[in-house]
Amino acid sequence: MTLKTMVKNEGKTSMDLTCSLPIANAFVDDQDRRFDTIDDLYDVVGNPECNVQLQPGFKYGMQFVYRVPRMRRSRRGSSPNATSTTSRCPPSSTSPDR
Q1: The dihedral of CA 23, 27, 28, 33: what is its sign?
Q2: What 3-state DSSP class applies to 55?
């Protein structure tokens, strides 16, 4: 499961999006199971490399990838409802807006 999003640093200091985990998040399925992101988000094509610092006021496109079990589709083709939850952690820093 991949969540494509835009992350904006609204903090006072720089943050590393892929290695220092400034954004705690989980994929929550319709059974309230919580799935963590994969460890190496910096290896995902399009994500910033490890230790590339997002400066305050800048934003960057980010893909959060979760390892989840394969879900069966019903005859109608519907899929389970799922949400992503995030919490703001103190930012930890140089990429242009994307």
Answers
A1: negative
A2: coil
Q: What is the C-alpha separation between 84 and 98, in angstroms, rounded?
A: 22
pLDDT digits (tens, 9 = 90+) for 52-73: 999 999 999 999 999 998 865 4
CA dist 47 to 1, 6, 82, Å? 15, 11, 23
Q: Identity (one letter) of the amino acid at 39?
A: D
Tell me, rounded to whole angstroms, the distance of Cα 84 from its chain centroid: 9
pTM > 0.85: no
Q: Which residues make Cβ contacts (< 8 Å) with residue 90, sequence separation at least 6? A: 11, 13, 22
Q: Where are the domains of the chain?
A: 2-70+80-88
Q: Which residue type, as a one-letter code, is found at position 71? A: M
Nearest to 17 by CA among 68, 59, 65, 54: 54
In order, the DSSP letters of 17-34 are TTTS--EEEEEE-TT--E
